[in-house]
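Help needed: design a sequence for this.
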């Protein structure tokens, strides 16, 4: 069922009774599509969640939300215009999926002026709009440029309500017209048919009307009776909320806010947990790749260090045959004393260095590789432990 126009009707009535007159102490944004107002009411401090993202609604929450280290720019703007303000009223205009919070807050000159936080929960165009007392838009969460007949939602423009759907509302429709529409419900897609013909109801509400056996009487009860908060269960899990007693496992809640907190609070916690897991996995994956790359490079260097004994032998052979070598030679033909058959061995030389300097250069390289082997072995062991 979730948050339809009928649910919002009961929610607004409840919120208006509970937070009208409350002072806004703090404004935070746990996520880019959620506003959390800390309110000082006559009955104590309360937190009002305004969400226009995956969980569209306004409700008093008891959940704890973490705020980002750097506030969003929209949050800073709301703090500027709403801090120390008082909530005057919470209303639903014309049975729409819209909630208007009217706030009296000081302006730049210190004079109190009325502002409206307009929460629109309409399809994909869910938005949060801050409007001044003249009806001009201060700011909005999502900019919507005007296009053709589509209204524009941009700072500086005058706020206009969404275009009303040209079909009778379930709240205003006459009994005869309602009965006439319901008598024409087709065998297939009856829920879609009702939504197309009657305004103010959702697919979920249409399905419940069809399940009742008498859709006209069911919808008439919806229009004439006050909404009540129910929590719908699927097994032991909270699956949805409703503004009427649905068919199936449902329990009446203390309030609309508590019902929403049970439904969305758990989902928000799960979303935050998923986000934490995702961030942690990314960090671990990045660290793993970095360490693996470092170990591979160190092992490659270590394999080069294995040639150190050959380099020392070359330095020893140059030294033992130094009497027969001169500066400027590019190669040295020397007797290889390390081989029992004493063959001649060719060693490359730097012609700019003396034979002695060539030998010293090789000895230094040998010492460097010898020290590198110890260091690299320790580093590789350390890296594998870290991995």
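Sure. Designed sequence:
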């Amino acid at each position: 069922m979730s948050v339809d126009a009928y649910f919002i009707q009961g929610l607004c009535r409840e919120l208006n009774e509970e937070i009208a007159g409350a002072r806004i102490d703090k404004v935070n944004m746990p996520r880019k599509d959620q506003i959390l107002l800390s309110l000082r009411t006559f009955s104590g401090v309360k937190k009002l969640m305004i969400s226009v993202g995956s969980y569209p609604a306004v409700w008093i929450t008891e959940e704890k939300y973490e705020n980002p280290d750097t506030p969003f720019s929209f949050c800073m703007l709301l703090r500027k215009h709403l801090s120390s303000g008082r909530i005057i009223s919470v209303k639903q205009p014309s049975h729409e999926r819209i909630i208007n919070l009217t706030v009296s807050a000081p302006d730049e000159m210190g004079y109190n002026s009325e502002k409206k936080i307009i929460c629109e929960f309409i399809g994909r165009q869910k938005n949060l709009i801050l409007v001044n007392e003249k009806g001009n838009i201060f700011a909005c969460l999502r900019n919507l440029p005007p296009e053709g007949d589509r209204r524009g939602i941009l700072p500086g423009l005058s706020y206009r309500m969404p275009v009303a759907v040209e079909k009778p509302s379930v709240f205003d429709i006459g009994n005869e017209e309602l009965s006439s529409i319901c008598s024409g419900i087709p065998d297939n897609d009856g829920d879609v048919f009702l939504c197309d013909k009657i305004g103010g109801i959702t697919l979920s509400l249409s399905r419940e009307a069809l399940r009742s056996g008498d859709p006209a009487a069911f919808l008439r009860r919806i229009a004439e009776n006050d909404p009540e908060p129910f929590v719908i269960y699927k097994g032991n899990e909270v699956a949805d909320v409703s503004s009427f007693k649905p068919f199936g496992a449902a329990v009446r809640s203390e309030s609309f806010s508590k019902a929403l907190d049970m439904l969305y609070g758990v989902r928000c916690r799960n979303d935050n947990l998923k986000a934490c897991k995702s961030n942690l996995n990314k960090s671990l994956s990045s660290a793993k790749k970095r360490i693996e790359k470092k170990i591979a490079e160190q092992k490659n260097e270590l394999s080069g260090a294995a040639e150190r004994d050959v380099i020392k032998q070359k330095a020893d052979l140059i030294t033992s045959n130094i009497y027969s070598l001169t500066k400027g030679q590019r190669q040295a033909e020397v007797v290889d004393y390390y081989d029992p058959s004493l063959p001649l061995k060719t060693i490359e030389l730097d012609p700019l260095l003396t034979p002695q300097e060539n030998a010293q250069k090789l000895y230094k390289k040998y010492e460097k590789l010898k020290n590198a082997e110890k260091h690299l072995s320790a580093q590789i062991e350390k890296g594998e432990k870290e991995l």
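The first helix runs from residue 5 to 19.
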